[in-house]
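Can't paste images in this forum, so I'm doing it all in text. The chain is below; anyone willing to post the predicted structure tokens underneath?
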Amino acid sequence: MTLSFTTQMASSPHDTSQCKGKSKQVEQVPSISISVAEPHARKQRSMWGLTRTLIANAITGMTEGFTVPLHLVGVGYRAALEPDPRPTAIIAKEGGGTSGQGPSMRLNMKLGYSHSVLVPIPPYIKAEVPIPTRIMLSCNDKQKLGLFAAKVRNWRKPEPYKGKGIFVGQETVRIKSVKKK
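Text version of the structure:
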């Protein structure tokens, strides 16, 4: 796979070139051109699709961003967003929080354990808790967002008998029937 960078000419209302009495300014817009060296090779075609998807996700992330809702389903399950009281040096060492950019935040979740579950939020993820049973996560990087959502989900995976747990997005679980004697 080869990658080449080119510049294209685009006209704008501030063009400085003379064209039939009107003045126009031409600005250079950089663009990326990607081509496959051997389009019939299987490995090249698979890398072509992967590269296209990664570039599309990067563009979507920078323009719109990605959002994933987490639903807490269960009696007494709830979440709250609170400032992290730990020193910023410890938080930055663990890879969470914002170092020097204001107070870092953490999720305080009650998930049926005898203790509260505290999860520090990394600086690249924005978290909101609109209602106690829903957490909205947003980020520019789809992979980092999915990894953090999976980390939170691992505290209480959805179980198939009562349907309780932390559900990511529109995830559903088929309810199993209890075995009877």
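The helical segments are 42-63, 88-94, 142-153. Residues 42-63 form the longest helix (22 residues).
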